[in-house]
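REQUEST
  id: r-88c1
  op: predict_structure
  target: Ferric oxidoreductase domain-containing protein
  payload:
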Amino acid sequence: MPLFLLFFALVPVLLAIAQDVPTQSTLQLTVALASVGTFGLMLGLFWLSRLMPDNTVKMKYSSSMRWHKYIGYVAGLFFLVHPFLMIVRRFWVQESLPMDNLVLMVKSPLMLTGIMAWFLMIVLVVLAFFRKKFPAKVFRYVHGALSISFVGFATLHVLKVGRHSNQAMSAFWIALAGVAVVSLLVSYIKPLLKRNEEAVQ
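RESPONSE
  id: r-88c1
  status: 200
  body:
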Protein backbone atom coordinates (compact mmCIF):
# COMPACT_ATOMS: atom_id res chain seq x y z
CA MET A 1 0.00 0.00 0.00
CA PRO A 2 1.31 3.50 -0.79
CA LEU A 3 2.61 4.90 2.49
CA PHE A 4 0.76 8.20 2.08
CA LEU A 5 -2.54 6.32 2.43
CA LEU A 6 -1.58 5.40 5.99
CA PHE A 7 -1.97 9.09 6.81
CA PHE A 8 -5.62 9.06 5.77
CA ALA A 9 -6.31 5.87 7.72
CA LEU A 10 -4.24 6.45 10.87
CA VAL A 11 -4.89 10.13 11.61
CA PRO A 12 -8.65 9.71 12.26
CA VAL A 13 -7.97 6.56 14.29
CA LEU A 14 -5.42 8.39 16.46
CA LEU A 15 -7.77 11.36 16.86
CA ALA A 16 -10.54 9.00 17.96
CA ILE A 17 -8.29 7.17 20.44
CA ALA A 18 -7.08 10.49 21.88
CA GLN A 19 -10.66 11.44 22.77
CA ASP A 20 -11.02 8.44 25.07
CA VAL A 21 -14.77 8.22 24.41
CA PRO A 22 -16.40 5.61 26.70
CA THR A 23 -17.53 2.46 24.90
CA GLN A 24 -19.61 -0.42 26.15
CA SER A 25 -17.48 -3.17 24.63
CA THR A 26 -14.24 -3.91 22.82
CA LEU A 27 -16.28 -4.83 19.75
CA GLN A 28 -17.98 -1.42 19.72
CA LEU A 29 -14.61 0.35 19.96
CA THR A 30 -13.11 -1.84 17.23
CA VAL A 31 -15.99 -1.15 14.85
CA ALA A 32 -15.83 2.59 15.58
CA LEU A 33 -12.08 2.77 14.93
CA ALA A 34 -12.37 0.61 11.81
CA SER A 35 -15.14 2.89 10.55
CA VAL A 36 -13.21 6.15 10.90
CA GLY A 37 -10.05 4.56 9.53
CA THR A 38 -11.84 3.11 6.52
CA PHE A 39 -13.63 6.37 5.79
CA GLY A 40 -10.31 8.22 5.92
CA LEU A 41 -8.80 5.64 3.59
CA MET A 42 -11.71 6.05 1.20
CA LEU A 43 -11.18 9.82 1.08
CA GLY A 44 -7.55 9.05 0.32
CA LEU A 45 -8.67 7.32 -2.86
CA PHE A 46 -9.10 10.74 -4.46
CA TRP A 47 -5.32 11.04 -4.38
CA LEU A 48 -4.98 7.71 -6.18
CA SER A 49 -7.20 8.80 -9.03
CA ARG A 50 -6.04 10.09 -12.38
CA LEU A 51 -9.05 12.38 -12.15
CA MET A 52 -6.91 14.67 -10.03
CA PRO A 53 -5.62 17.65 -12.05
CA ASP A 54 -1.94 17.11 -11.29
CA ASN A 55 -1.70 13.70 -9.72
CA THR A 56 0.31 14.11 -6.55
CA VAL A 57 0.93 10.38 -6.33
CA LYS A 58 4.08 9.53 -8.25
CA MET A 59 3.05 6.03 -9.29
CA LYS A 60 2.57 4.19 -12.53
CA TYR A 61 -0.98 4.45 -13.82
CA SER A 62 -1.52 0.67 -13.56
CA SER A 63 -0.32 0.59 -9.94
CA SER A 64 -2.37 3.63 -9.00
CA MET A 65 -5.57 2.21 -10.44
CA ARG A 66 -4.94 -1.23 -8.97
CA TRP A 67 -4.67 0.19 -5.46
CA HIS A 68 -7.66 2.46 -6.11
CA LYS A 69 -9.75 -0.52 -7.19
CA TYR A 70 -8.77 -2.90 -4.39
CA ILE A 71 -9.08 -0.35 -1.61
CA GLY A 72 -12.36 0.88 -3.07
CA TYR A 73 -13.82 -2.63 -3.08
CA VAL A 74 -12.70 -3.41 0.49
CA ALA A 75 -13.85 -0.05 1.87
CA GLY A 76 -17.11 -0.23 -0.07
CA LEU A 77 -17.94 -3.71 1.20
CA PHE A 78 -17.07 -2.66 4.76
CA PHE A 79 -19.50 0.24 4.66
CA LEU A 80 -22.22 -1.96 3.19
CA VAL A 81 -22.17 -4.02 6.40
CA HIS A 82 -21.41 -1.01 8.63
CA PRO A 83 -25.01 -0.55 9.91
CA PHE A 84 -25.15 -4.20 10.97
CA LEU A 85 -21.73 -4.05 12.63
CA MET A 86 -22.97 -1.15 14.74
CA ILE A 87 -25.69 -3.32 16.33
CA VAL A 88 -24.18 -6.81 16.10
CA ARG A 89 -22.99 -6.70 19.71
CA ARG A 90 -26.63 -6.46 20.82
CA PHE A 91 -27.21 -10.05 19.69
CA TRP A 92 -25.16 -11.12 22.73
CA VAL A 93 -27.21 -9.00 25.15
CA GLN A 94 -30.20 -10.95 26.38
CA GLU A 95 -32.36 -7.91 27.16
CA SER A 96 -31.69 -6.28 23.79
CA LEU A 97 -33.80 -6.54 20.64
CA PRO A 98 -31.25 -5.99 17.86
CA MET A 99 -33.65 -6.09 14.92
CA ASP A 100 -35.96 -3.60 16.64
CA ASN A 101 -32.92 -1.40 17.24
CA LEU A 102 -32.04 -1.62 13.55
CA VAL A 103 -35.56 -0.55 12.55
CA LEU A 104 -35.47 2.37 15.00
CA MET A 105 -32.04 3.37 13.68
CA VAL A 106 -33.27 3.38 10.08
CA LYS A 107 -36.34 5.46 10.99
CA SER A 108 -34.34 8.08 12.89
CA PRO A 109 -34.11 11.44 11.03
CA LEU A 110 -30.47 11.68 12.14
CA MET A 111 -29.71 8.59 10.08
CA LEU A 112 -31.03 10.02 6.79
CA THR A 113 -27.58 11.14 5.64
CA GLY A 114 -26.14 7.74 6.52
CA ILE A 115 -28.90 5.94 4.62
CA MET A 116 -28.32 8.11 1.55
CA ALA A 117 -24.58 7.43 1.73
CA TRP A 118 -25.26 3.71 2.15
CA PHE A 119 -27.43 3.49 -0.97
CA LEU A 120 -24.91 5.54 -2.95
CA MET A 121 -22.20 3.11 -1.85
CA ILE A 122 -24.25 0.19 -3.17
CA VAL A 123 -24.52 1.93 -6.55
CA LEU A 124 -20.79 2.72 -6.56
CA VAL A 125 -19.81 -0.88 -5.80
CA VAL A 126 -22.17 -2.33 -8.42
CA LEU A 127 -21.07 0.23 -11.00
CA ALA A 128 -17.40 -0.56 -10.32
CA PHE A 129 -18.00 -4.28 -10.88
CA PHE A 130 -19.61 -3.58 -14.27
CA ARG A 131 -17.39 -0.65 -15.29
CA LYS A 132 -16.14 -2.41 -18.44
CA LYS A 133 -19.66 -2.40 -19.86
CA PHE A 134 -19.66 1.40 -20.02
CA PRO A 135 -17.64 3.79 -22.20
CA ALA A 136 -14.60 4.97 -20.24
CA LYS A 137 -15.63 8.62 -20.25
CA VAL A 138 -19.19 7.81 -19.13
CA PHE A 139 -17.94 5.65 -16.27
CA ARG A 140 -15.41 8.32 -15.28
CA TYR A 141 -17.96 11.10 -14.89
CA VAL A 142 -20.73 8.97 -13.38
CA HIS A 143 -18.31 7.40 -10.90
CA GLY A 144 -16.95 10.82 -10.00
CA ALA A 145 -20.40 12.36 -9.51
CA LEU A 146 -21.55 9.45 -7.34
CA SER A 147 -18.32 9.62 -5.33
CA ILE A 148 -18.81 13.32 -4.63
CA SER A 149 -22.41 12.68 -3.55
CA PHE A 150 -21.32 9.82 -1.30
CA VAL A 151 -18.56 11.88 0.32
CA GLY A 152 -21.02 14.70 0.99
CA PHE A 153 -23.65 12.54 2.68
CA ALA A 154 -21.10 10.35 4.48
CA THR A 155 -19.23 13.36 5.88
CA LEU A 156 -22.47 14.91 7.14
CA HIS A 157 -23.37 11.56 8.71
CA VAL A 158 -20.01 11.32 10.49
CA LEU A 159 -20.28 14.90 11.76
CA LYS A 160 -23.86 14.48 13.04
CA VAL A 161 -23.85 10.92 14.36
CA GLY A 162 -20.23 9.91 14.87
CA ARG A 163 -19.28 9.21 18.49
CA HIS A 164 -15.85 10.73 17.95
CA SER A 165 -16.85 13.93 16.15
CA ASN A 166 -15.19 16.55 18.34
CA GLN A 167 -13.81 19.80 16.91
CA ALA A 168 -10.46 18.34 15.85
CA MET A 169 -12.04 15.33 14.14
CA SER A 170 -14.73 17.44 12.49
CA ALA A 171 -12.13 19.87 11.16
CA PHE A 172 -10.12 16.95 9.79
CA TRP A 173 -13.13 15.46 7.96
CA ILE A 174 -14.28 18.80 6.54
CA ALA A 175 -10.79 19.69 5.31
CA LEU A 176 -10.10 16.27 3.82
CA ALA A 177 -13.49 15.91 2.14
CA GLY A 178 -13.49 19.53 0.96
CA VAL A 179 -10.08 19.33 -0.70
CA ALA A 180 -10.94 16.00 -2.32
CA VAL A 181 -14.26 17.20 -3.76
CA VAL A 182 -12.93 20.57 -4.95
CA SER A 183 -9.93 18.92 -6.60
CA LEU A 184 -12.16 16.45 -8.40
CA LEU A 185 -14.48 19.21 -9.62
CA VAL A 186 -11.50 21.20 -10.87
CA SER A 187 -10.28 18.16 -12.77
CA TYR A 188 -13.64 18.06 -14.59
CA ILE A 189 -13.92 21.77 -15.27
CA LYS A 190 -10.30 22.47 -16.26
CA PRO A 191 -10.35 20.39 -19.51
CA LEU A 192 -13.64 22.00 -20.54
CA LEU A 193 -12.21 25.48 -20.08
CA LYS A 194 -9.09 24.50 -21.99
CA ARG A 195 -11.15 23.19 -24.92
CA ASN A 196 -13.20 26.39 -24.96
CA GLU A 197 -10.02 28.48 -25.07
CA GLU A 198 -8.66 26.40 -27.95
CA ALA A 199 -11.97 26.74 -29.81
CA VAL A 200 -11.90 30.53 -29.43
CA GLN A 201 -8.32 30.72 -30.70
